[in-house]
Amino acid sequence: MTREAQRDSETETGSGEQSEPRPVDWTDPDTFARALEQSETREKGNCFEDFAEGDRLQHDPGLTLTRWGNESWMSQTLNHDPAYWRSDAAAERGFDGPPIHPDYLTAATLGITVEDLSEKGGYFLGRTDVRFPGAPVYAGTELRVESEVVSTATSSSRPEFGIVTWRTRGKDAATGEVLCSYERTNMIPRREPVATDGGGSATAADADGDEDGSGLPETFVTPDGGFFEDFVDALETAEGRDAAVAYRHERGRTQDDVTVASLPLATLNTAKQHHNADAMADSPSGDIVTYGDVTRSTALGHARSDERTWREVGFDDEKFHTFVAPGDTVYAFTRVLSADNDASIDAAGTVRFEHIAFNQDDEPVYSGTRIAEIRKRTA
Predict the structure, then answer these.
(1) Burial class of 121 by CB neighbour count within 10 A (0 to 12, 13 to 18, 19+)
(2) Where is the composition biased (Basic and acidic residues) (predicted)?
(3) Domains in the chain and their CATH numbers?
(4) Given its phi and psi angles, is residue 112 left (phi above 0), alpha (psi -120 to 50 degrees) or beta?
(5) What's the CA gap between 134 and 114, in Å, rounded?
(6) Phi, psi for 34 (deg, rounded to 5)
(7) Can you tell me the mean pLDDT for 219-224?
(8) Between 6 and 221, residue with greater pLDDT
(9) What's the pLDDT tens digit per position in 145-193?
(10) pLDDT in tens, 296-330
């Protein structure tokens, strides 16, 4: 640099001072790509090591159950029971007005827990003892949710995961009354994989069965209608024979943007599996997947359309067998297990069902047992 040029530079920047660094264009694609490579991601959710038996978690932020949220969930999953839509039908059941549907209540209770419990991902292994011990729930109720870690265990087949079981309760924020409770089990990613012996528990496929391996009865009996007496009659027809009361439901629901992303997000379910197509591109599904409670509620909606349901009592042994992706269609199959004349009112009896949701390829995607009070024809 000539002496004259140096003087010009010092005149611009001040004698002896270094010039300001050239501004960085953070939005330049190459520059931004390098910035992403150098930066750390602030991760959400908890790993397996963050859970210990007996831990209690209070889940924020809670959710106000609304009629809009209730009706959106019910309409999109084809749950059209008039008592949850119309004041006159609600009054006939003894409700003060159309209440919050148990499926929406269950989904909202679980949705609020996702950020703390399962946002890291991992397989939903099952849920049981789903119960609604409180009075009917109405729009405007503020839901608060808490969970307790029941157990933690090493996965013998997947060393990169651990298995965690939680007992979760959804409560009325104003009264503290438990509105919904259940126990659920998930695989949760570990920070560091652990060494295992590679063993695993035996499956049903390992057991000895009949000659064709199916174990299915010779005859399937279909109830003549949806009243309690119809289920009793069908069970009596099957009794003493190689028969089961089992049937499929006609309706199906193809999964779209509303069921896959909108419904879970409305319950504050933050799991990326339901709304982040980029993150899911390299997953086994290759795409975002339907929230399990949407799959379940859709199948139950199909089943309820063929029943005279009076009241939901509870659910047990719920499992999700494979993912449901956009474009998949959810159908339902029902097996009637038992019928008992005892119920909360004389106008109904109690029926225990097994429901199986399946897709367009006839693959089971959900299964669970359900206890419901079914209206009597003669009441």
Answers:
(1) middle
(2) 1-10
(3) 48-193+218-375 (3.10.129.10)
(4) alpha
(5) 23
(6) -65, -35
(7) 95
(8) 221
(9) 999 999 999 988 889 999 999 999 999 999 999 999 999 999 999 998 8
(10) 999 999 999 999 999 999 999 999 999 999 999 99
Q: Which is more confidently placed, 298 or 17?
A: 298
Please state, in angstroms and rounded to a whole number, the distance separating the CA atoms of residues 236 and 117.
45
Q: How far are the Cα atoms of 121, 183, 288, 300 from residue 74, in angstroms, in the given order?
A: 26, 23, 22, 11
Which residue reads 């000895």 in tokens? 208
Would the pLDDT of 250 be above 70? yes
What is the reported pTM? 0.87
Sheet holding 243-254, edge to edge: 56-64, 142-154, 161-172, 178-189, 124-131, 309-320, 364-375, 348-358, 329-340, 243-254, 219-221
